[in-house]
Design a protein that fits this description.
Layout lengths: L7 E4 L5 H12 L3 E6 L2 H13 L3 E6 L5 H14 L6 E3 L21 H23 L3 E6 L20 H22 L5 E7 L7 H6 L7 H13 L9 E4 L2 E3 L8 H15 L3 H4 L2
Parallel strand pairs: 1-2, 1-4, 2-3, 4-5, 5-6, 6-7
Antiparallel strand pairs: 7-8
Helix pairs in contact: 1-2, 1-7, 3-4, 4-5, 5-8
């Protein structure tokens, strides 16, 4: 953890759950923590806790259900620091009990796909130049073992909506993006990896899903920090972990054609160009 002394880190979704604990641990290690969330009161409370423990933190508010807010968040990060390591894309929403009511984002996209995947895709793309300048640097996408292959004929689930399916395909999209980044960033000094931190952690998201917690946020935080800090992962990217163990995700994650389809769709939905996304 001493390698974080004086470094600036960004943890999205860090006002609650495992993200909050990760932010605290990074602050305790001497990093300057950019805390992100929607709730300013909870965010400022965490900033105060980190400061009281001798650390440094700042709260950045953004609603990741709106791509304009994602862009503003990226601009705020770039305006506050000239280096970033690591970027932890942790924010997300769950199934909310797999309710059959389809919800959409501010941009009209299926909500779970938008918040869990598309926002992280855009944020990572916008912050990649900063990460490259900060090399060696790491990007971590907090995904899930709950994965389901994407039907590219109905990505937004207009025909047959199911909350569990929406959540699972958004999480697989995160993993597919990470695998793509592993190839793209090879040799750059920046690595991207993803993980299922722990099963049904004791978090607000899990409790709202109706599932009884079966693991702790401490377990999940340990797994996330492992990807952020482990010397064994230096220079290794495009990997998927279940907790602390490297493993394989759903087969679609390793389908180059499917990843290319997802990339083109994501560029179109976020308004990025191929050349801009590769900078």
């Amino acid at each position: 953890m001493t390698v974080l002394q004086g470094k600036t880190v960004l943890v999205t979704g860090s006002t609650d759950g495992v993200g909050r604990l990760v932010a605290r641990r990074l602050g305790d290690a001497g990093a300057r923590v950019l805390v992100h969330g929607r709730n300013r009161e909870r965010g400022e409370q965490l900033v105060g806790e980190i400061a009281d423990a001798g650390g440094s933190a700042e709260f950045l508010a953004a609603d990741l259900a709106a791509l304009a807010d994602v862009r503003r968040l990226a601009e705020a990060v770039v305006g506050r620091t000239d280096q970033l390591h690591p970027l932890i894309n942790n924010a997300g929403i769950g199934t909310d009990g797999a309710a059959g009511r389809r919800e959409v984002s501010a941009d009209g996209h299926e909500l779970r796909f938008a918040v869990n995947y598309l926002s992280g895709f855009l944020l990572a793309r916008l912050l990649l130049p900063l990460l490259r300048r900060s090399a060696p640097a790491r990007l971590i996408n907090v995904a899930s073992a709950g994965q389901q292959a994407i039907d590219f004929d109905d990505v937004m689930l207009n025909r047959a909506y199911d909350g569990w399916r929406a959540y699972r395909q958004s999480k697989l999209a995160q993993i597919m993006f990470t695998v793509d980044l592993g190839d793209e960033l090879a040799g750059s000094g920046v690595t991207a990896n993803c993980l299922h931190p722990a099963t049904f952690m004791d978090t607000t998201m899990v409790r709202r899903s109706g599932m009884p917690p079966s693991s702790t946020v401490e377990e999940g935080a340990e797994a996330i920090l492992n990807l952020a800090l482990s010397p064994q992962l230096e220079g290794r990217g495009g990997l998927y972990f279940n907790g602390l163990r490297e493993t394989r995700a759903d087969a679609q994650a390793y389908d180059a054609q499917a990843r290319a389809q997802l990339r083109q769709l994501s560029l179109r939905l976020t308004g990025l160009t191929e050349s801009a996304s590769a900078t």
